[in-house]
TrEMBL record:
This is Carbohydrate porin. Belongs to the OprB family. The lineage of its organism: Bacteria, Pseudomonadati, Pseudomonadota, Alphaproteobacteria, Acetobacterales. It comes from the Bacteria. It comes from Gluconobacter potus. It holds the Pfam family OprB. Coiled coil: none annotated.
Length: 499
């Protein structure tokens, strides 16, 4: 399925958080096997949509075949065949299948993210951004004959401006933006040692494996939304820590244990370099620890139940509980007052100090609420999460998001979706109290920060297995975390192509 990628902040960088942090790049990872599944195979390119038919008369189901006439040609036999093949570029006259059988899986994607605010905010603007990515996954057993795992490589390129800084907004309403940059996004060796232990090491990010999404019908359940507040992971963890995020790649590693030898239970530990400069455009291929400020150390417990796929058997459910320690020395939360437009003359009196180490945690729940009895392609899924951050340093110590997706909208549209989601971000009460006291002294022209909440509704039209067209709308309360500006309405439009 088509799964997309977020980020953007400064014109010279790409970053996921538009206002609160600069010089960082956050973003959504593309597709990936469900983190609850005990499968070592991982890919970061958008997957083609796999469709199952309704049950036959005998009650069985089978995977619907796609029309792909490029096994012996670089071009499909007809326009209909092109529209129904699994990827836009097809099988490359058989070379794609040949390479896959040899252990080399090549994928790619194009994704564009547009948004504009006809009302509200500091000014009215329209912004466009896109990302192009190529990934290669090597099955080393097929290539060498030895069971030595998998090797992953992903390279991405982004361009375009973000709307969030113009509103302003604490969470960007767009998943992606950034100055033109070609970037290494993944270079890792993944090794399933046995059915109890899997490891991964290399240039990578925590977003792929900690406090991330689950997969439903081949779709990333968080990234059925354009808002970067939801897509990829709950945004506040990136505000509050050195959590590493797509599309950046940091030196890192993780180990996952399956105590029962299956995917019902798992416990995972990781270690990633914290590098505040990794989002800068000139650091797109940085592969060292120079400039690192510490280590991000997450852990996560996962409980999973469900059938062998989402088309049959028990309905999927996932519960994830995790936490982290970030060893970096950083300034406390009062250093973020400038985010809310506090004039410089007042900031000099803020009680800014340094803190060694940050911590936090999360709880996530998602479930397939129902699967239509007459068509396993159709159904409804739900997710919700709560994220908490260190009150000494966290500008957003409390963050909640949730989403509801209905797959199969009309009798002839089993793969289209309607999604409704919301995020609620509460600013640190320390900042709220400090500004309230400042106002009490007679200070004028300042606004008390409290929080920023938003809601999104969209329609995902999938005219082909390899194309996604998703118009939608967002509404933001207290944009920028204060009541300085009128609440904006955002009209957004996404397009994604699996190459």
């Amino acid at each position: 399925m088509l799964l997309w990628i977020p980020c953007g902040l400064k014109a010279q960088d790409i970053s996921k958080i538009p206002v609160i942090q600069t010089g960082n790049v956050h973003g959504r990872v593309n597709s990936h096997v469900s983190s609850a599944k005990n499968s070592p195979v991982r890919t970061v390119n958008p997957r083609p949509l796999l469709v199952k038919t309704a049950p036959d008369a005998d009650g069985s189901t089978r995977m619907a075949t796609t029309s792909d006439t490029t096994e012996n040609s670089f071009f499909p036999d007809s326009f209909h065949d092109w529209l129904t093949q699994s990827t836009m570029t097809g099988d490359w006259a058989g070379w794609r299948t040949w390479l896959t059988k040899k252990g080399i899986n090549i994928g790619g994607h194009y994704f564009q993210d547009s948004a504009g605010n006809p009302m509200g905010g500091a000014s009215k603007n329209v912004r466009y951004a896109h990302e192009v990515g190529v990934n290669v996954d090597f099955d080393l057993k097929k290539l060498t004959g030895f069971s030595i795992g998998l090797f992953h490589l992903t390279v991405t390129s982004r361009a375009g401006l973000g709307l969030g800084a113009k509103l302003p907004a604490l969470d960007s309403p767009q998943e992606i933006y950034g100055s033109p940059t070609v970037r290494l996004s993944l270079l890792s060796w993944e090794m399933p040692w046995n059915r109890y232990v899997t490891t991964d090491v290399g240039e990578m990010n925590a977003e792929t494996d900690f406090e991330s999404w689950s997969m439903y019908w081949g779709m990333n359940n968080y990234c059925q939304f354009e808002s970067n507040a939801i897509c990829g992971m709950p945004q506040s963890i990136a505000y509050n820590s050195g959590y590493s995020y797509y599309p950046t790649a940091h030196p890192g590693a993780w180990v996952k244990f399956y105590p029962a030898g299956n995917d019902h239970y798992s416990i995972q530990f990781g270690a990633y370099s914290v590098d505040p400069t990794i989002g800068n455009t000139h650091n797109g291929w940085k592969m060292n620890l120079h400039g690192a400020t510490g280590t991000f150390l997450p852990f996560q417990l996962v409980w999973h139940q469900g059938g062998k796929d989402d088309y049959s058997g028990p309905l999927q459910t996932n519960v994830k509980i995790g936490g982290y320690w970030d060893s970096s020395e950083v300034k406390n939360v009062y250093s973020q007052l400038g985010t809310f437009g506090i004039p410089e003359q007042y900031l000099v009196s803020a009680p800014v100090s340094k803190v060694r180490g940050r911590f936090g945690g999360w709880f996530q729940f998602d479930r397939m609420l129902e699967r239509d009895g007459n068509d396993p392609n159709r159904g409804t899924s739900f997710f919700a999460s709560f994220t908490w951050g260190d009150p000494r340093t966290s500008v957003a110590p409390y963050f909640v998001d949730w989403g509801l997706t209905r797959k199969g909208t009309f009798p002839t549209r089993p793969n289209d979706t309607v999604s409704l989601g919301m995020k609620m971000l509460w600013v640190s009460p320390k900042l709220t109290s400090w500004v309230r006291e400042l106002q009490g002294t007679g200070a004028t022209g300042i606004y008390k920060p409290s929080g920023e909440h938003s809601i999104e509704l969209n329609y995902g039209w999938r005219p082909t297995p390899w194309l996604l067209i998703r118009p939608g709308a967002q509404y933001i309360w207290s944009t920028g975390g204060t009541n300085k500006y009128k609440n904006p309405l955002i009209l957004d439009f996404e397009t994604g192509i699996t190459l």
